[in-house]
Amino acid sequence: MVEKLASAERDEALAKLPQWRHDAAENAITREFGFPDFSRAFAFMTQVALLAEKEGHHPDWSNSYSTVRISLSTHDAGGISAKDIALAGEIDRLLERAPA
Ligand SMILES: C[C@H](O)[C@H](O)[C@H]1CNC2=NC(N)=NC(=O)C2=N1
Fold first, then answer.
1. What domain range is 57 assigned to?
2. What positions belong to coiled-coil segments (predicted)?
3. With a 6 A CB cut-off, is 4 part of the ligand 1 pocket?
4. pLDDT of residue 93
């Protein structure tokens, strides 16, 4: 089982993911994404869903029209693990490859 990161490790990893925030109340890392419309927001969610299935690691998220909010934590570890950091990086790279 993957271990949760110590807060110093988490902060060091987050320094390389400047668009992600540590949400202490959720014990998760979060990012909000804005798109021009619902279709593009949902297309992004579809890509993230496929990525999550591939990784066996899944986001907690919400969608309101053209906004998608993603919260990543490792439920099994009770906090933020390297898997969350890795998935956040891959989600960022999805947008670099195919800007919405
Ligand atoms: C068995 C399966 O791999 C686990 O239940 C996975 C599935 N996806 C998961 N996703 C997240 N975010 N946290 C987990 O602990 C987790 N566990």
1. 7-97
2. none
3. no
4. 97
Q: Is the CB of 10 under 6 A from ligand 1?
A: no
36 C-alpha to ligand 1 centroid (Å): 31
Rounded CA-CA distance 12/57 in Å is: 21
CATH classification of the domain holding 72:
3.30.1360.20
Number of structural domains found in the chain: 1
Note the pLDDT tens digit of each residue in 86-99.
Answer: 999 999 999 997 65
Phi and psi of 30, rounded to 5°? -135, 150
In a domain, 44, yes or no: yes
Residue nearest to atom 3 of ligand 1 (CA): 56
Residue of the CA atom closest to atom 13 of ligand 1: 74
Q: Which pLDDT band, with edges at 50, 70 and 90, does 81 fall under?
A: very high
